[in-house]
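Data availability (excerpt). All sequences and predicted token strings are deposited with the supplementary files. A representative entry, MMPL family transporter, is shown inline so that the format can be inspected without opening the archive.
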Amino acid sequence: MGARIAMWIAGRVGAAVILLATAAVATLVFLTSPAQPAAGPTDGLPEGKQSTRVTELMDRFASGRAESAIIVFERPGAALSEPDRQALAALRTAVTGREHVGTLPPLAYAADGQAALQVVPLQADLSDEARDSTVDGLRALLRDGTGLPDGISAQVTGGAAFGRDISAAFAGADVTLLVATAIVVALLLLITYRSPILWIVPLTVIGLGDQLVAKLLPWIGHLIGEPTDASIAGIVSVLVFGAGTDYALLLISRYREELRRTTDRRAALAAAVQAAGPAIVGSAATVILALLTLVTAVLTSNRTLGIAAAAGVAVALVFGLVVLPAALALLPRGAFWPLVPVAGSAETSETGIWARVARLVGRRPVGVLAAAAVVLAALAAGLLTTTIGLSQTEQFRTEVESVQAQQTLAAHFAAGSSQPLQVIVSTPNAQQAADIAARTAGVAAVGRPEASTDGTLTLLPVQLADESGTAGADRAVTALREGLSAGAGTDALVGGQPAADLDQRDANARDNAVVAPLVLAVVLIVLIALLRSIVGPLVLLATVVLSYAASLGAASLVFAALDIPALAASVPLLAFLFLVALGVDYNIFLVSRAREETAARGDTRAGTLRALSATGGVITSAGVLLAAVFTVLGVLPVIVLTQLGVIVGIGVLLDTLLVRTLVVPALALLLGERFWWPSRPAPRPAEINAPRPAHDADLQWKRDPAASGR
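Structure token line:
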């Protein structure tokens, strides 16, 4: 960042203007933020897939896009008696008259006589709120027990019930995440700064930025034509807090360092902004560009997340590099109390744990690198146990009624009864399609056909033997599609929840293959532009990929210990994106400082060791804070967010404590001046002939070259 801009931000007038402008913009956004756009029927579905096309065609049928709830009745260990059946028939009549409930089909009884199920079709195109209230009403009716014989349980499952339970899982999520994140950040900032005052400033600034982003999300939803739901809002909030606080830690650490060099507080702040600015901007640019690679995804939910998260990080950058310095400019040096930095005092980075770590790496870079590589390889071996794909009943971390009822249903009926496939075929081919479906392995039953309003299409409900999202259901969907394509012509389409689950996993696999290389390419280009080097960026990228493999392997072992059977299909890509982009952040902070110190000292070895000791504390604090913030996602009872939080948390800790601390400095020492090839760090004009404090490890090497292993 230019010296004049930095000085203006640090000045009284500039700081006041920035803070007033921020307040004005925030007020305007808060007052004008619209409601989220209405959810469309294909939101979150992959473009061009059969399940998406079936969803688009459903409005041509009288049943429309109606969801169904399913009431499962069970008398465990005994057959339903005739009085039981009469009571269930009376209860069916009570359900028929409820608001938003369509015409009920007859009760279906299990072959073992111990259970019955009642399909409750809801009116077409209900809003989420109306659907949720209808399911709640059904559950309240059953809990009341009126007309239900003793010993019979009744629970609600089906697509509408699963949707209700997902909504309930995210109810109040914004407040829960905000409070949990704010507490974690406040605690860690208090520990980091050891000041009862200073931590309030970055927390307030970044908290305001987070709330501003929350109000911008509906605008983004309208721009891209899809609402930014609670899961996206939660991930974006964590990113804003994590990235914004990282930028704040780096800036304030450099500010404290500059305060020890001058009595002019505003000059120190301007120098800190100017020195830390390029690394912070480079870091944010890496994350933003990496997130924007998601616009190439076929899953609309991935594209929405990419755009929303990129906007969030951009706001975090502005608040961390512009608004925060303006706020600091209005505070006296005493804001650091009780550890107030005094001009001329000794650099604390020249002593302490990070100076000792730097000396260790400087003495034995080969040994340090070998030991770290063994640890990372051992953790990466956990990938051998990694499996991908969860069934619908495995999506929740806590017990919910829709899952319990689905398990009861599967014990007495075909597990796929709760959410049948929807096969749409041209009417002349309808009977042939029904015959093919009935012969397909994994199909339990073919329901009554329904003609479209113009008579040209026919809808066939097809029940599977296996639950949606399982390997058996996937095989049945694939076999049915192949059979229909060969026998009923290419006009047959297979949709419904089991097909949508399969199509989403296929889309995630495609997005993995396309987006992951794009992320690596974007990160590499940014690193080359920032460091003006080729060798260094390639080394940094390789270390981050290795860190990702180790974190995914380690997390797989954790999930196995917690009896979580597999990773959700969307988790590997999102974890890769966040870990590569955020992992490179810390390497940018370290290597940018190493380049600066190398330019000043004329030696890569001395510059790298000085950078490690100077940035070790702040980067470690930032990494621990970011890992803790991502782990906060685990407060929500949804497996996909829990898995994402755990993987990114483990990965950030590995990258912070092992890769950035040991692996990268050791590689830089072993490569020497080749690390910067083809350029060589050159000092800025102000640094030429400027005295710089010598680093302990550098002095040690000059006194005794053999002690360094050189």
